[in-house]
Amino acid sequence: MAGHGSTIEYSGNGMTFEGYLSRPSASDAPVVLIAHAWAGPGEHEFAVADRLAELGYVGFAIDVYGKGKRGTSVEENTQLMMPLLENRTELQSRLKLALQTARGLENVDSSRIAAIGYCFGGLCVLDLARTGADVRGVVSFHGLFSPDPTLEGTPITAKVLALHGWDDPMADPESVRGFASEFTKAGADWQLHAYGGTMHAFTNRQANDPQMGTVYNPKADARSWKAMTNFLAEIFA
Asked: Is 1 part of a structural domain of the chain?
């Protein structure tokens, strides 16, 4: 396990989940949940948790697949992700369980919680906001914008920041407009930062598949991280 954090197990809905927790030196810090990409929680999410701890937040890399369920190929990742995309109610139940776990952590400020997510995890945190969950804000990094029709009409109280590569083939301009319309109708305080010349997975240093549309972009990576840190500072003030 990289970094200075530790694994954390939590259970619910008849399943056991395994995440990663990284704490700052100060107690009673805000908590930031980190929702993983389609492979499951791994070194990228753990590194993000450590970076958040360095900023003074409790970084909690959550698990929505279940302990030991991780992908190592496109096929395995798809098999893990698709059942939850097809059953958003189950996905949202697992997200709420992670949020409940975060609230129960010792020596944290449970009144100040946010969630960020990458790729599939971006959809996860948007879904958390869609449920009307009591979190200060959510940040989607190159996330999927597919709405959940069953939640239409639910007020969104969390502030929302979407960080998006304009050339992302998995979230085309039509879906971006759909996101804007949906979150406006739900009364959300939302922002969208779109990065030109930028594809999907732009924060993933291992992404280098132009045909699939997944390419690391160091400028967008740095800009999006700065946008997120500004957003967290605002919502936790």
From this structure: no
